[in-house]
TrEMBL record:
InterPro entries: Aminoacid_DH-like_N_sf (IPR046346), Glu/Leu/Phe/Val/Trp_DH (IPR006095), Glu/Leu/Phe/Val/Trp_DH_C (IPR006096), Glu/Leu/Phe/Val/Trp_DH_dimer (IPR006097), Glu/Leu/Phe/Val_DH_AS (IPR033524), Glu/Phe/Leu/Val/Trp_DH_bac/arc (IPR016211), NAD(P)-bd_dom_sf (IPR036291). Keywords: NAD, Oxidoreductase. Residues 145-357 form the Glutamate/phenylalanine/leucine/valine/L-tryptophan dehydrogenase C-terminal domain. It comes from the Bacteria. PANTHER family: LEUCINE DEHYDROGENASE, VALINE DEHYDROGENASE. It comes from Nocardioides malaquae. The keyword NADP does not apply. The keyword Oxidoreductase applies. Belongs to the Glu/Leu/Phe/Val dehydrogenases family. Pfam families: ELFV_dehydrog (PF00208), ELFV_dehydrog_N (PF02812). Transmembrane segments: none annotated. This is Glu/Leu/Phe/Val dehydrogenase.
Length: 363
């Protein structure tokens, strides 16, 4: 490639597929990072990337995160992800989604898709008209529906675990929590925090999302921007929850934030690997996103057994215990929480994938 993009052949991914259907306007990339534990499950992000290189960079990082996320969630699933390049408000159509479904089907079950930023359960119903390998469908079609419900629930459990590790109590009552991004996941997280008695401040670039928060929770503060929220415009933050797109926690944020805990739903929220080290050196407790935001994948994965919300919720509740295990291991070993989480995931991948060397006689 000549445009400075990431070369998929230098990554550790198993397979990267570029999909293009000129008539429907589909331009998509499907990335499978690992199928050691099972088919790669991960959502489809529909986003107006500035370039194919940006889209490729995002899908490679997101699919790698799904490998760790699914492993730590205890699922027999590998890591995959897809991105569709375009503006979902203008470019999404039945023809495009069905064309995308044909490409998903062409992978023969190696990749199982679901919702992500820019896609919804109703979209998955359309994709499923062309592919059997779709989760996150509407309840009317036997699906789990909106996976943001348990994504937010899992982040809340992870946040409570961080509080227990740092302050000796799971309770978030009275804590000042800033939520950046109150879309599908953020709005549910705000509800959990308000119910627990936290003082919540929110920000979002999409004004209708803020209007919805004002209607649902008039007691919640609204900051003019994430930067002003982090600077203490509406009060000194104790917990920062990035819940929009990735890269929100930059080196500058890591060096200057007054928050003691960073725990949010956004994927790949650390701008680069060095950010984790800076946070650790400053004593800021960071809950790796691929640990705490696994509730959504737990929810859609449950469809494969015949969806039961309470069963999925009980599984998502374990995110708190997993988060605590990661934090304690990081403290014991003197490593970043990201390193500790990756080590735990890689240990499970190794131990379980090893079993596939045991031959099972057929017939």
């Amino acid at each position: 490639m000549t445009d400075g993009s990431v070369d998929p052949f230098t990554s550790d991914h198993e397979q990267v597929v570029f999909a293009h259907d000129p008539e429907s306007g589909l331009r998509a990339i499907i990335a499978l990072h690992s199928t050691a534990l099972g088919p790669g499950l991960g959502g489809t992000r529909f986003h107006p990337y500035a370039s194919t290189a940006d889209a490729l960079r995002d899908v490679l990082a997101l699919s790698r995160g799904m490998t760790y996320k699914n492993a730590l969630a205890g699922l027999d699933l590998g890591g995959g992800k897809a991105v569709i390049i375009g503006d979902p408000r203008q470019d999404k159509s039945e023809a495009l989604l069905r064309a995308y479904g044909r490409f998903v089907e062409s992978l023969g079950g190696r990749y199982v898709t679901a919702c992500d930023v820019g896609t919804f359960s109703e979209d998955m119903d359309v994709v499923a008209r062309e592919s059997r390998h779709v989760t996150g469908r509407t309840p009317e079609h036997g699906g789990a529906g909106d996976s943001s419900v348990l994504t937010a629930y899992g982040v809340h459990q992870g946040m409570r675990a961080c509080s227990a590790h740092l302050w000796g109590t799971e309770s978030l009552e009275g804590r000042v929590v800033g939520v950046s991004g109150v879309g599908k996941v953020g709005v549910h997280l705000v509800g959990h925090l308000v119910d627990e008695g936290a003082k919540v401040i929110v920000t979002d670039v999409w004004e209708p999302s803020l209007d919805r928060i004002r209607d649902l929770h008039p007691e919640v503060g609204v900051a003019s921007s994430t930067e002003s929220m982090l600077a203490g415009e509406a009060g000194d933050l104790e917990i920062y929850a990035p819940c929009a797109l990735g890269g929100a926690v930059t080196a500058e944020v890591a060096r200057t934030t007054g928050a003691r805990i960073i725990c949010g739903a956004a994927n790949n929220q650390l701008a680069d690997d060095d950010v984790a080290r800076v946070l650790t050196e400053r004593g800021v407790l960071h809950a790796p996103d691929f640990v705490v935001n696994a509730g959504g994948v737990i929810q859609v994965a449950d469809e494969r057994e015949g969806f039961d919300f309470e069963r999925a919720r009980r599984r998502a509740h374990r995110i708190g215990a997993t988060t605590l295990e990661v934090l304690e291991q990081a403290h014991r070993e003197g490593v970043t929480t990201t390193e500790a989480a990756e080590r735990l995931a890689e240990r499970r991948i190794h131990d379980v994938a090893r079993l596939r060397r045991i031959h099972l006689r057929n017939g």
